[in-house]
Amino acid sequence: MQKHQNALKTIKVASGQIQSVAKMIEEDRYCMDISMQIQATISLLKKAQATIIGDHLNTCVVESIEQNDANLKVEEINTLIKAILK
């Protein structure tokens, strides 16, 4: 399976929801309905981000540990921490 495939599927669903939100706005739909769709899209994007970070843990961080390179381990963990804190 290709790396990040699950995240890509989620992103594609979110992309469809964004299109739907744009159409709702163009149709002057009820504000709270639009807001709920935006929130659903945000949730999908967060899910995709969590998947990407999980993939990073299971590949890049594991590789740095397997290579027994202390500097690389620290660098990968710092990259992970920065991503989580954003």
TrEMBL record:
Q: Pfam families, per this entry?
A: Trns_repr_metal
Q: Which InterPro entries does the annotation name? A: Metal_Tscrpt_repr (IPR003735), Metal_Tscrpt_repr_sf (IPR038390)
Keywords from the UniProt entry: Cytoplasm, Metal-binding
Q: Which GO terms describe its biological process?
A: negative regulation of DNA-templated transcription
| A Gene Ontology cellular-component term | cytoplasm
Instruction: Report the domain of life of the source organism.
Output: Bacteria
Cite a single GO MF annotation.
Answer: DNA binding
| Gene3D superfamilies (alphabetical) | Metal-sensitive repressor, helix protomer (1.20.58.1000)
Q: Where in the cell is it found?
A: Cytoplasm
UniProt main location, coarse? cytoplasm
Subunit structure and binding partners = Homodimer.
Protein's name in the database: Copper-sensing transcriptional repressor CsoR
